[in-house]
């Protein structure tokens, strides 16, 4: 005689989802939240509290416009430039209830889920980290390694800007660096209008010669520190006009700055920098007696203490 057993009901685990009530709609409790979705720890205005505390700070003497108050609030004001490796935006840091405020450029490097530098292997020659695990992770481009690379690029640009600004080279003042985020001087007008890139300018003959002399001084300033920009072009140079409307040349985008002496490809990067920027000036009618890229490169190599033989390019 067969016996019929009732099927055993599966016991619920303590961490199973709670059963949904049948025939009844879920109650939306968000309407009862008086905060309206706002972060209770966030500032009363703006996007976040100032990140000055805990960041790496720029060199002294610090410009007067830098806001260091812990009660300051940061507000993103929009994008300035979007690239493959980083995005640059306009950020205002202000102290509520006061007239203390400053516009800054914020550069945020892309991390593991985004594309990194397309030629980072050549630029990174000579750069090392202390831990072999980190070196392997970066070499194999693991997610962890790409995060390390993003932070290394931000740190490298911050260090280069700090050193060059202290030495009087025309670069933006680096305000602070936190992880993959770099805050620096905004090169532009008080209303948030960014200075144009050199590629956007149409200078007359006198202004072209003036900008060339400024460029030569800037590149010599790099070379005397055995450095090359590494990715110089008319798109990585800003031309800002002050109240007297005279142009001021500023070098930007220096994460890949190259040591001309210790990097085996250093002279090659320097030659490419000179060729690219020199082509722009000569195409716009730079008088040969004022300057020529062909004579500038040997001068920079000598200033850097590198081999005086011109690399093939």
Description:
By secondary structure, the chain is α+β, with helices and mostly antiparallel strands. It is about 25% helix and about 20% strand. It has six helices and eleven strands. The strands form three sheets. The protein has a seven-stranded antiparallel sheet, covered by helices on one side. It has a two-stranded antiparallel ribbon with strand order 8-11. A two-stranded antiparallel sheet has the order 9-10. The chain is globular. The chain starts with about 45 loop residues before the first strand and ends in a 9-residue tail after the last helix.
Give the termini separation: 96 Å
Mean model confidence by pLDDT: 83
- The spatial strand order of the largest sheet comes to 1-3-4-5-7-6-2
Query: What ranges have pLDDT less than 50 throughout 5 or more consecutive residues?
Result: 13-18, 113-119
Molecular shape: globular
Q: Quick one: how many beta strands?
A: 11
Reported for the largest beta sheet, the result is: 7 strands, antiparallel
Q: Compute the CA-based radius of gyration.
A: 27 Å
Which class best fits the helix and strand makeup?
alpha+beta
Q: N-to-C SSE series? A: EEEEEHHHEEHEEEEHH
Helix content range? 25-40%
Number of helices: 6
β content, as a range?
A: 15-25%
What is the topological layout?
Elements: E1 48-49, E2 56-57, E3 73-82, E4 86-94, E5 101-109, H1 120-123, H2 132-139, H3 143-166, E6 174-178, E7 181-185, H4 205-223, E8 227-228, E9 237-241, E10 247-251, E11 258-259, H5 266-283, H6 293-304
Antiparallel strand pairs: 1-3, 2-6, 3-4, 4-5, 5-7, 6-7, 8-11, 9-10
């Amino acid at each position: 005689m067969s016996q019929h057993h009732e099927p055993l009901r599966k016991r619920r685990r303590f961490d199973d989802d709670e059963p949904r009530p049948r025939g009844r709609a879920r109650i939306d409790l968000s309407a009862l939240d008086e905060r309206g979705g706002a972060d209770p720890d966030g500032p009363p205005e703006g996007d976040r509290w100032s990140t000055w505390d805990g960041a790496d700070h720029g060199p002294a003497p610090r410009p007067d416009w830098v806001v260091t108050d812990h009660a300051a609030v940061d507000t993103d004001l929009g994008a300035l430039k979007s690239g493959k490796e980083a995005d640059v935006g306009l950020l205002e840091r202000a102290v509520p209830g006061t007239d203390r405020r400053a516009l800054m450029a914020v550069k945020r490097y892309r991390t593991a889920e985004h594309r990194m530098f397309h030629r980072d292997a050549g630029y990174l020659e000579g750069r090392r980290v202390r831990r072999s695990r980190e070196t392997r992770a970066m070499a194999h481009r693991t997610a962890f390694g790409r995060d390390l690379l993003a932070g290394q690029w931000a740190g490298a640009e911050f260090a280069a800007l700090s050193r060059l600004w202290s030495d009087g080279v025309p670069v933006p003042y680096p305000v602070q660096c936190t992880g993959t985020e770099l805050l620096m001087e905004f090169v532009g007008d008080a209303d948030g209008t960014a200075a144009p890139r050199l590629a956007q300018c149409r200078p007359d003959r006198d202004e072209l010669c003036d900008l060339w002399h400024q460029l030569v001084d800037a590149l010599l300033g790099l070379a005397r520190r055995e450095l090359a920009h590494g990715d110089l072009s008319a798109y990585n140079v800003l031309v800002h006009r002050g109240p007297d409307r005279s142009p001021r040349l500023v070098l930007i985008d220096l994460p890949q700055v190259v040591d001309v002496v210790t990097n085996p490809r250093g002279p090659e990067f320097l030659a490419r920098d000179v060729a690219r920027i020199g082509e722009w000036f000569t195409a716009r009618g730079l008088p040969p007696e004022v300057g020529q890229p062909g004579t500038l490169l040997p001068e920079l190599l000598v200033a850097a203490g590198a081999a005086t033989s011109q690399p093939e390019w």
